[in-house]
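Hello,

Our lab assistant flagged a job as stuck in the queue for most of the afternoon. It eventually completed. Since we weren't sure the result was trustworthy after the delay, we are filing this so someone can double-check. Below is the sequence as submitted and the structure that was eventually returned. Let us know if re-running is recommended.
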Amino acid sequence: MIDTLSFAPDGKITISGRGAPRGALLRAYVDNAEVGLVQAGGDGGFTLRLPAATPGPHALRLDALDAAGRVLARAEQGFEGVAPPPPPAAAAVAETAAPARSRIVTISSGNTLWAIARDTYGDPYLYVQIFEANRAQIRDPDRIYPGQVFTLPE
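-- returned structure --
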């Protein structure tokens, strides 16, 4: 299970999770290209740093392998690659012409739009903004699913 997927300022991605078979070798792929390898701990937990991804939608896959290289388990997660922030000198120029920035969130089990809006904006009633920004993925604002990646407008 992939628990977290986070982006560093340099664009590199760190993933962590749990539930891997004890001591299994975990191989990570982004868009079916191998990008990393790590061995799961005794408790099945893992952390892996991956190279930066280009802006846009991507698919992350993590395969747990046995000693013979057979796949024991697989976890998949979609994510949205983000462009690195502009250099400080260019930022001042870009601020005058740039559209509003947005953040992204990957939905985990138990998340609700209400709670995300409360934690992000300080007002749970602003869940409507998240719903409107992600209408293509959300049919019913009461039904969101783990693994969905939503834009959180500023």
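-- support follow-up --
The delay was a queue issue, not a problem with the job. The result is valid. Helices lie at 88-97, 113-121, 127-133. The longest strand covers residues 71-81.
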